[in-house]
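Journal club prep — side note

Before the paper discussion, L.F. wants everyone to see what a predicted structure for a comparable chain looks like in token form. Sequence:
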Amino acid sequence: MDEVRAGHGSLRLETDGALTALDAAGLPAAAGSGLAADLTHAVLSGSPDALKASVGELHVVRTALAAGECLEETPVPVDMTNLSVVVGGDKIIKLVRQWSGADRSARLLARLADAGVDSVPGYYGSLDWEHPEHGRGTLALLSAVIPDAGDGWTWAVDDVVAWFRGGKAPEFPAALGRLAAEVHAALLAGGAHPAPGAAEVRARADGVLDVALALTGGDAGIRLSNRAGRIREQLAAVPETAAPAFDLHGDLHVGQVLRSGEQYWLLDFDGDPQLPNAERDRPDSAARDVAHLAASLEMVASVAAKRLQAADEASLGRLYGWADEASVQLTGAYQLAAAEAGLPDLLDEAMLPGLIAEQLLRELIYAHRFLPRWQYAADGAITHRFARDSARAPRTKEPAWTPPAL
């Protein structure tokens, strides 16, 4: 068992690759224990000299962004894959819980910082460990805090609920399209690759449907089975594309977007958490990210239906109709922004229907494995996106989708 020691605790590397943050007493570290401040100071100083690795060497990768000197720690009040702590009120440090779990983020955030992309929170740098057996891995990343910001599962739903109740139409779909195009243009500058072939994309998507069918039970499973034929046809229609592949965001949905006032920022470049690290880091075409984002708009409609307790056909038709139109606005704004950046062929829209369907299936799988209460959102989106296959589905009445109680 190897570790990196600091004045107020340590990061311990277990034999299975798990990284455990411990305070000075050997207990799980949390905001206020001082470990986050120690690691923050190392990144901001550009030197790991105050830290000690039991084996190997430590490195700091620093950007040119200036930061405040205060190191007071406060907690981040949400569940996170990694331990995140706000330091000094203006910085947030992410302590990685699995070896190589944030290597991708560190690489892409540094590239975006160098490119001057302002739709990503300011990035100060990372602390890396050159380990004799595991190679080089990122232990912690330090970014700027966006004050008074919320994520899209709150503000996007708020906007849709307000619109449903008579307010103005949400403007964020176009803003998200422009944001995605800006980030993609900067990531593409890191190098283009041939996109995966259509046969590979179709086979992967078809396999996802098989897994979703096997895992999804109850009324949701009945509704999915009744639509499986139409979904499979959609997945089989994904075309070949000449669009380039490059390093994507990989897990692009509204929950990854902060908003404060009229400004939007994109977070979390770790990639799709349902994929192994090697596959997660594989270049793909822009359509993959845009489809993920468009699928999340349909999930916003489901969450808004829950918030509104809307179960009648007219209300649900209006909400999911909004999602359809929002997807058009998203892709239109993306295409315009990409063309303005000199990349008119960056997005192949013909790929989107099949990739959106695949992503909604992945959301069902994610709900089954990690977050059962989330199943309703993907179930609702799939139910309303795909008509029941009357030729294959039983002729008995299908259980209607309704949002769960608040």
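L.F.'s comment for the group: The longest strand covers residues 135-144. Keep this in mind when we get to the figures.
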